[in-house]
Design goal:
With 375 residues, the protein is α/β, with parallel strands linked by helices. The protein has 14 helices and 13 strands. β11, α10 and β12 form a beta-alpha-beta unit.
Amino acid sequence: MKIAVNTIFLQKDRLEGYGYFVQEIFIRLAKKYPEHEFIFIFDRPFDQQFIFSPNIKPFVVKPAARHAFSFKYWYDIKLPLALKSIKPDILIQPYGFCSLTSYVPQILVVHDLAFKHFPKFIPKHHLYYYRAFTKKFLNKAKKVVTVSEFSKDDIIWQYQIAPEKINVIFSAAKNTFQPIDISAKQITKEKYSDGKEYFLFTGGIHPRKNLITLLKAFSLFKKWQRSNMKLLVAGRLAWQYEMVLEKLKTYKYRDDVVLLNYLPEEELANITASAYALVFPSLFEGFGVPVIEAMQCGIPVITSNTSCLPEISGGAALYADPINADAIATQMLQLYKDESLRNKLIEAGVLQARRYSWDKTADLFWQTITELAGN
């Protein structure tokens, strides 16, 4: 079988959610099934590190697809032309878009419908494209994959897609995220937080990630509990980040907030495993990988009581209304004061994290591929 995979998010030193999802699944499938050929389709020069095995063949289709007009041109004109020469049996579209003009059977991955719930947090040209074409994409695809039961229900409700067309295949955390010993934790703290304990937020600085409310909650926590606790923010400046940077200029506890920007995976794993707790009050998620990364590292989690986050964390976290800074701060204070609760959450989180693994995710994705190939 010849399987084409849209790999435009496999970019060196810029791997994030979509890119990791594709990398972790297809590094496993390509190695596990050497008798099949995998065509990785890039929209720009690629790095050789993403050609994981000899049965992966790279193919570049230009120009780069990064805004609404280029999306339409790339997916519906350039990509179908390339597919005529590649002649794949199946095409994997992992980023919520598919080609409306190709006759190759497509598996479409839709991680979430955030644009439906928080349209003001989406760039206008992206929002137009999502609104105009998402239903067409869902109808065009032969199979749809999403990453939580919450997202599946959302897709069904918003677009009246038949439930049997959608497979839920959970995401996961990489094996790099593991507990570390006390001395390694202290080295990490000395490097990033002046040796102090810290709450951690992981994710891009983007309105949907809700950092302004987290800053308000951290301020309340510091007011209620005078401690030297810090807040580390690990994530790149993504979109509409200026508001956060402006807020920090006059923020009372700005010396206790550390912006780390994008970090290499190994460094992020050490920072996660050294944290006092993860605080992840995102307004909307399709899965919420940072929650599982933290649990896998053996640190407790405070997260939102909305979208998929209660489902993914399975009761092994503390929950708060993400728009209520007081509620988030209360959970931070409770965790800080109650060591017994913190230990219980750590134990429960480790068990919950074991439900997810990239090996299991890859196997389930392969079942979807073979199901479509059989049909």
